[in-house]
């Protein structure tokens, strides 16, 4: 057997940072998408969690797709929202990113 259901995520995470150590938006979102089939394995009880994760991924992807060169680094989305005083909004990319990172670091209870 070649690894576990987490192997693609662990391999993908190696490519999320640039050589300068910045988080690359597209690569980060690709890794986030890899967790969705894993959540499916837990059954229907996790459907809401999967929906929330997918919604946050879509929110960030939509923003990224408006200007991939501008939003190549995740920090650029956050900084724009901080500068515009929109980072704390429930539909902000910053909020979605915080949710995704808190889920991926196992803080969800």
From TrEMBL:
Which GO CC annotations does the UniProt entry carry?
cytosol; membrane
Q: What GO annotations for molecular function exist for this entry?
A: ceramide 1-phosphate binding; ceramide 1-phosphate transfer activity
User: Is-annotated flag, keyword Nucleotidyltransferase?
Assistant: no
According to its UniProt record, what is one Pfam family this protein matches? Answer: GLTP
InterPro entries with a match to the protein in the record: GLTP_sf (IPR036497), Glycolipid_transfer_prot_dom (IPR014830)
Q: Boundaries of each Glycolipid transfer protein domain copy?
A: 24-101
User: Does the keyword Nucleotide-binding belong to this entry?
Assistant: no
Question: Keywords, A to Z?
Answer: Transport
Kindly give the PANTHER family that the UniProt entry links to this protein: GLYCOLIPID TRANSFER PROTEIN-RELATED, PLECKSTRIN HOMOLOGY DOMAIN-CONTAINING FAMILY A MEMBER 8
Q: What is this protein called?
A: Glycolipid transfer protein domain-containing protein
The organism's taxonomy opens as: Eukaryota, Viridiplantae, Streptophyta, Embryophyta, Tracheophyta
